[in-house]
Amino acid sequence: MQVGIIGLQSSGKTTLFNALTGQMASVGDFASGKEANKAMVKVPDPRLKRLAEIFEPDKITHAEVQYIDIAGMTGGASTEKSEAAYVAAIRLVDELAQVVRVFENDSVPHPEGSIDPVRDIDSANSELIFNDLIVADNNVNRLEKSMRVAKSDENKKRWELLRRSCEALEADTFLGDIDFTSDELKMLSGYGFLTLKPQLYILNIGESQIADCQLPEKLEEHLKPRKSSAVAICAKIAMEIAQLDEEDRDEFRSTLGIKSSALDTVITESYRLLGQISFLTGGEKEVRAWTIKKGASAQEAAGAIHSDFQRGFIKAEIVSYDELDKSGSWSDAKKGGKLRLEGKDYTVKDGDVILFRFNV
Ligand SMILES: Nc1nc2c(ncn2[C@@H]2O[C@H](COP(=O)(O)OP(=O)(O)OP(=O)(O)O)[C@@H](O)[C@H]2O)c(=O)[nH]1
Ligand SMILES: [Mg+2]
Prior knowledge:
Blueprint: E1 2-7, H1 13-21, E2 37-42, H2 46-55, E3 59-61, E4 64-69, H3 80-91, E5 95-101, H4 117-149, H5 153-170, H6 182-188, E6 199-204, H7 217-222, E7 228-233, H8 235-242, H9 246-256, H10 262-274, E8 276-282, E9 286-293, H11 298-305, H12 307-311, E10 313-320, H13 321-327, H14 330-335, E11 340-342, E12 352-358
Parallel strand pairs: 1-4, 1-5, 3-9, 5-6, 6-7
Antiparallel strand pairs: 2-4, 8-9, 10-11, 10-12
Helix pairs in contact: 1-8, 4-5
The structure holds guanosine-5'-triphosphate (GTP) and magnesium ion.
């Protein structure tokens, strides 16, 4: 899973990137046109630690998320080249995290001269809409050309769908706000539309706002489209905490009244927005968390591990994490009747610990 960190100039993107990844990419200097910062992050999951006590494996493998800090959305200060590279990079991600400046800091000038989160969200979102409109419009034109030579039902359907998308975008509507059918979504999936991606707004609040962060009502109502949600984080403090030794982090957080780490907050919300859940596997070799779409079947979950598991799927032995935790071992869970045998159509739940039986 890839999350692209976007937002206006000096909103705190790189600071947030460092907070999430523990890296020390340089912040503060105008970074437009530079290479994107990229890092893989282990998804925190306390269940793995407990599973390791139970299975005593050689290694523990966390699910991973890649964060990409993409410089370039600058409200006018970018070059055409950096703009193109920027858009190409964000078309590939699964989800957008838009950093919105709420913090006041006189030594960091705001490109528009004042702090106004609603205006900034509007401005960043219009860039997304504008870029999608170009793509939709170009493809409408291309289809019209090819339909002059050969008319096909498929092309006609596609043309109508893209026309409808253009109209929506022209009316400032995110494509994610339109009730497309699953067939239509499939047809649209190849274009990398930015406004179709789930978006997490990260309100970058100041140090003095941590304890009592009331988001302005206007902002709440503004947090659309539907496939979006928002969290408030002080990126600067979160970055400082991420640089501390692990054992000091919790203490520092509780002194400041911060409930959970920036990474926990962002990842939990990212998973929820994307409709992702984790299932777990355990054995002598490895204890591991895997990411799948909510609603995935046991057979699809098997495919997340290996295509052989999916093809040769026979059945899945499943115990919920909570039951396994209580039982203390796989065999005790079995003795206690907590182990279930499920077929390929079983819908996997978050925290299911699964042993796949397969035959290839
Ligand atoms: N006071 C305060 N300053 C912050 C906060 N977050 C970021 N800053 C400061 O704002 C400046 C810009 O932060 P960056 O993380 O470089 O912002 P950016 O969005 O990556 O900027 P560009 O890549 O240049 O577009 C830095 O000096 C940060 O220290 C915050 O929560 N509070
Ligand atoms: Mg930056």
